[in-house]
Design goal:
The structure is a homodimer.
Chain A: H1 14-22, H2 30-37, E1 42-46, E2 51-53, E3 61-67, E4 70-75, E5 81-87, E6 106-109, E7 113-119, H3 120-129, H4 131-157, H5 160-174, E8 183-186, H6 191-198, H7 202-214, E9 218-221, E10 224-227, H8 230-236, H9 249-252
Antiparallel strand pairs in A: 1-7, 2-6, 3-7, 4-5, 4-6, 8-10, 9-10
Helix pairs in contact in A: 3-4, 5-7, 5-8, 6-7
Chain A binds a DNA duplex (30 and 30 nucleotides) through helix 7.
DNA sequence: ATCGCTTCACGACCTATGTTATTTCCCGTA
DNA sequence: TACGGGAAATAACATAGGTCGTGAAGCGAT
């Protein structure tokens, strides 16, 4: 349990990384930034494949990803799993649970991961105290919602290869990889987990991955993704990063114009 | 353009219906309630099948459904459509766009509908002025997100009949139908639109609907849904209404405890 | 090195759902 | 009362992706 006190080195700490992300889309004053950096946290380490929040469990903490990959999962009556979102370092996996702690499904670590737990009370308090923070958090939740929306389109209406290509493009952008020519990143998830995210069988993930490889678009080997031609992969995945972009422009000038 | 002034008759007006919904999950003072009722609105009538917000269009208004059914839609490169959410009277179809006006896809009326447009500026202003309203709006957006999450699970991992059953159950609950024994409601959407929501072909919607009918679970005739046995349909659709429930309990006592 | 477990690779076969096309039903309108 | 257009109902056929089964390949622990 500690709050990062040094605002200048904020970018290096987990809370600093989170603040950084938030500020790509919202404008915050120094006070507000500090309030976020001062949130009390509790570090938790997780094994790979560890379900740490069960479906229908009601939690009192949100969880900030420090390292690894965290996923939210839903489950069918017959036990089929659907990963409904994936969270990378610097992201809050369930910020929304601060205002609505039910109906979020379970949470699991796709690989060995470290998270910071932050109590809902602290989050709601800082949001109530600083309206701009409330709006920033709200906006961050809506980014997540926009991603979810893309996933629904992806799963509902695209074929296997397109779907996977889209996912790999999205993760690349969210990891901040510059999308020019080739790039690579670590993404230590199994084909089974990939299937749970893309709503298909691990067998078919395997087939499709090899097909994408045969087309010269990307290579996935033991948790490392190599994109050979960004442009071609994005085309194959029908990927348009608009929904992920920083979007603070419309809000920059008019933050907090409280009349009266 | 009018603001409903009479707070006592609030329940009857569209804004009153919206406020009502919000208050199922959040506690608001009389002032705050009034501030919502005073939001300036603009009425718009829509034909059935009218796309009134195009994909990637950036809007300056959120839209409150007065009557009819409004849907958000995404689209594939080959033109396949995916309905990503459906909105019934009393709901705000895109409240989230107030804080994040991009990446929400298009909006369309599934049948002749009436909406109220409310400017993003007005929404953000009332939210900044009353932290409790910000939290309430944020929470309402998260309910929508929880629904979206269920849709992803539904589309990704359930078969056609289960999927449709789930949708009909959800709509029944959202329309406030009491879920005991039989019930019916108007839901004037075509099988094609149903297919766009459930991620399948209209042909297969037809097949599956007849199968559900043959199982004695429900009848769908020209925009009217009749559920014959709620329990059985809910079981067939693996429907658990938890994610839709009013959930203000944890927030009731501790609203706005701003510690300086 | 060797064991044991997990993940990856791949083949054979099966089925839920998509595709395409035609017919029937409904309902508003002339 | 007949006409016209959109939905709904069906039928025949095609296919993407699921299921089941078997090895091979990594990799960590002994």
């Amino acid at each position: 349990m500690q709050g990062s006190m040094d605002v200048s080195s904020g970018e290096q700490t987990p809370l600093g990384a989170f603040l950084n992300r938030i500020m790509q889309r919202s404008v915050l004053t120094a006070d507000e930034q500090q309030a976020i950096l001062d949130l009390p946290t509790q570090t938790v380490h997780l094994r790979g494949k560890q379900d740490f929040v069960h479906i229908n469990e009601q939690v009192a903490y949100s969880c900030l990803v420090v390292s690894g990959v965290i996923a939210r999962v839903g489950q069918t009556a017959k036990g089929a799993r659907q990963i409904t979102s994936v969270h990378l370092p610097g992201e809050m996996a369930d910020l929304h649970s601060a205002v609505r702690p039910i109906g979020l499904g379970g949470m699991t670590a796709l690989c060995p991961s470290t998270i910071l737990r932050i109590s809902h009370g602290a989050i709601r308090q800082v949001a109530a105290r600083f309206p701009a923070i409330a709006e920033a958090f709200w906006r961050d939740c809506m980014l997540e919602s926009a991603i979810l929306l893309q996933w629904l389109l992806n799963v509902g209406r695209r074929d296997a290869q397109t779907r996977l290509a889209h996912i790999f493009c999205e993760v690349a952008v969210r990891l901040g990889r510059n999308r020019t020519a080739a790039c690579q990143y670590d993404f230590p998830v199994t084909q089974e987990q990939l299937g749970d995210a893309a709503a298909m069988t691990s067998v078919h993930v395997n087939r499709s991955l090899r097909a994408l490889h045969a087309r010269g678009l990307l290579t996935v080997t033991r948790g490392r993704v190599t994109i050979h031609q960004w442009e071609a992969l994005a085309r194959a995945g029908e990927f348009d990063p608009t929904y992920l972009l920083a979007d603070m422009e419309p809000h920059r000038q008019e933050r907090l114009r409280i009349s009266v």
